[in-house]
Amino acid sequence: MKIYSLLTILLPLAVATASAQVAVQAELLYPMTGDLKPIEDGVVLCSKDGKIEKVGPAGAVPIPEGYQVLKAKVATPGFIDAHATVGLSGILNLDRHDQEQLEKSAPIQPELRAIDAYNGRDPLVKWIRQLGITTIHTGHAPGALVAGQTMILKTNVPTITDPEKNTLRPFAMVASTLGPDGFGSGGKAPGSRAKSLAMLRETLLKAQSHLKKRKEVEVGIIGKVDPDLRLDALADVLEKKVPLLITARRHHDIAAALRLQKEFGFRLVLDGASEAYLLLEEIKAAGVPVLVHPTMARPYGENENMTFTLAARLHAAGIPFAFQSGYEGYVPKTRVVHFEAALAVTYGLPHGIALAGCTSAAAELLGIADRVGSLKPGMEADLSLFDGDPFETTTHCIGVVINGTVVSEVAK
Amino acid sequence: MFPSLRYLFPLLVLALIAVVSLGGGHETPVPLRAYVGARIIPVTAPEIVDGVLLVRGETIAAVGKRGEVVIPDDAEVIEVKGKILFPGLICTHSHIGKVQGGDGSSPIQPDVRVLDSIDVLDSTVEKARAGGITMANLMSGSGHLLSGQTAYLKLRDGNTIEDLAVRNEDGSMAGGIKMANGTNSIKGSGGSPGTRGKSAALVRAQFLKARRYREKLAQGGDDPPERDLAMEALVEVLEGKRVVHHHTHRHDDIITVLRLKKEFGFKVVLHHVSEAWKVADEIAEAKVPCSIIYLDSPGGKLEARDLEWKNGAELEKRGVLTAFHTDDPINDSRWFLRSAGLAVRSGMSRQKALEAVTIAGAEMMDQADQTGSLTVGKKADFVILNGDPLSVYTRVLETHVEGKKVFDLDDPRDKLWAEGGFGAGHKRRASGCCFTR
Lengths: 412, 437
Known about the structure:
Chain A is α/β, with parallel strands linked by helices. Chain A contains 11 helices and 16 strands. Chain B has a domain at 89-373: TIM Barrel, CATH 3.20.20.140.
C-alpha cells in the first residue's frame, strides 16, 4: 500500500497537457454509490470521451502516465441543483433584459420552453459552476398557475445551439404553482385556490382529449391532429413523458396537488412543500418525491410555517427528495444548492444523505441517474474538488470537471 | 413623559440602597452564576480552553481558566463542558420587529423615529434571539435619502420598546440615523431625486439648514428658534451624537458619502458597501468604519453586481474597522454566523471575522464599553454554542442578555423560533407583566 501511495504522489509530476486525460485523487472520494461511504485516498480516471473509466482506492487504481492529475482533500460527483432558475433569472434582475423566468400575460403557458429562455453566459451560471455545481434543472419559475417548461443541462453550456446535444433533457418538466404565488396579477384569474384548481382541471381535460386524438393518429383511426403547443406540452405530462412540477407550500395546496395527481394520473414532483411535514403519510402513500425548499428560504407569507428540519423529516419518513436553490426575486439572486444542503445537516439530516440530495438522489429524482450524480465507470465524468468538507462554509471549491474536462481551477 | 416622576423617585432611592448594600460587602442580593468547563472565546482576549465565566447579576464578574478564577461558594455552578461561550452577536443593520421609517411624502425625514413603529413581540425578534443576537440596530429602509432615526435595542425579554431600548446617558433611547444613496433612494417622483447629483444636493441643503438652526440655538438669547424635530435630529448628527448609518453600494456612491462626511463632519458607518474593494484605500484614509453584508451570490440589482466576498479581507488589510450585518430579512438573523464563515473563506482572518459579528458592531453603535466581548465589567451578553462559531454545523444553544437567559434551545417554545415549524411566523404573546421563561 505504501509503495502505491508513493507512486501516486510521484506520478502527477509527469508532464500533463491541457488536453490530457484527467485523473482526480482525493483523500476522501465520495462515489455516492451503495452505502454512500467515501473511499479513503480514492482515484477517478476519466476517459478521452469524458466518461468515468475507473474508480477506486489509489492502491487499486494506479494513475497511468500522461494524465493531468487533480488532487484534493475531498472530491464528489459534480453537484446537481435539482431546481433552479439560474440562466433565466439573471444577475442584474432587470425586467425585459435578464428576467426570463416568468411571463405573467396568461395564467397557463406550458408552451414556454426553457431552451428558448436560457442564457448560459450569465455571470451567475459561472458563479455556481466555480462553486462546484455541474448540472442544473432550470427553467420557468414558480409564480404562475402554469409558468412553462424546465430543462436539465450542464453549467458549461454557454449557448444552446443543439437542444438534444447541449442538454440532458431539453424538456424536463412543466412548472405549476398552487396558492397565492400562482394567482394572476391585476385582477386576472386565478384569484383563488379553488379557481386555480378549476382552471388546471379544465385545461388538463382538454389536454386529455388532445392526447386521445394524438393516440388515434398513431394507430390510424384518424388522419391528423393539429399541433397545439399548449395542449401538446400538457399531453406529454398526461402521457407521463415529463412530470408536472407543482410548487405548493401550504398543506392544503400540497393536498390539492395530490388530489390532482390522483385524478389525472401524471407523474407529480412536489416543489417547495414548506408544510409537507404535516402530510408525510399522504405524500409517501402517493409515491411523490419532493424538491425541498432551500433551508435558508425566507420564512414569510406562504412559507411562514417552514422548518429547517424538513429534509430530515422527509428522510425519516422515507420520502425521496433533493435539494434546490429555488427562485429568488431579489438577493441573493441565486442560492448555492450545497450551502442549503449543509444547513439541513445542521438541522438533523445525516451528512451522506445530504450529499446524496445534491448528487445521486437528485439525479434519481430528475431521471438522469444513468448519466450523472455518482462516480461509476461509464457515467459522465463530472467532479467537484474541495479543500475540506464541501458543506463547511470555510471550505473552498478548488476544481470542477465536466465531461472529463477541467472547467474551473480557481479556489472559491 | 413618564406618568409621574413622583413614582420614580422612591424607586431611585431603593436602587441606591441596593447599590450601597452591595458595596458594603454584605450578602449579595444578585444571583451569581459560574459557567464552567467551556471553551471561552472572549474575542478581545485569547481563547481559553477550559474556562470559567462568572456572571454577577447583569454583569461579567470574571473570565479565566478553570482553577484560576475563584468561584464563590454561593455561586450556582453550571457545567458547560464541550460547549463554546462566545459574546452575544451584534447586528449593526436589521429590520426585525416590523420596523418602519418615513413614508412616501418626502425623501428626507429626520423627524421620524423608528422606535415608534417597532413590534417587539414580532416573531422576527424571537428568531434573532434564537440566532444569538443580543443587540441590534433596527433601521428603516433605503428608499429615502434619509428615512428616520434608528433604534439600538438589547434583545432583552420585554413587552415594549422601552424594555428593550439601549439608553443614552440622559435616559433617551439610543440610535443613529439612516441614510441612503444610489438606486434605491432615486425615484424621480414625489419630491424624490431622479439622479445622484440631485440626491447629494438635497442632502447638503438639509445639513446646511441644520447648521443654521444649530447656530441659532447656540446664540441663545430671547429669540430661540421654534422647535423643529427634523432639525433637532440633524443637529445631533452634526454634533456627532447620532451616528449616520449610510446605505451605499457603488464605488462612486461610497466616495460621495465620504465627501459629505468631510463637508459636514458627521460620524458615519458605511453599510453594505458592495464595491468596498474598489475604493478600500479611500475608505481607510477617511477612517470610516464599514458594516458589510455577505450574500451567497452577487447581483439581484445592478449596483450589487460587483459585490465580492473579498470585501472583508480587503478592508482588514487596510485596518478599516469592519462589522457584518444580517439586513434581516435579507439574511435571516439565525444565519448570522455564516457571514463570518464566508469572510474567512474569502481571506479575512478568523480573529477579525469574529470581531465583525461582536465587538466591531458594538464600537459602531458606541456601546463597546458595555458589550461586544466577554470582558470583566461588561454586560453578560453571551451565547452558548455547541461548536466552533465558524462551522456551519454549529447551533446556538442559549442566548443571554444582561445575565438573563432569553433563548434556550431545550425549551420547546424557543425551539420553534430556532427551527421553524407550524406557528413560527406568529408573534409572541405578551405576558401580563414581564416575559418569563
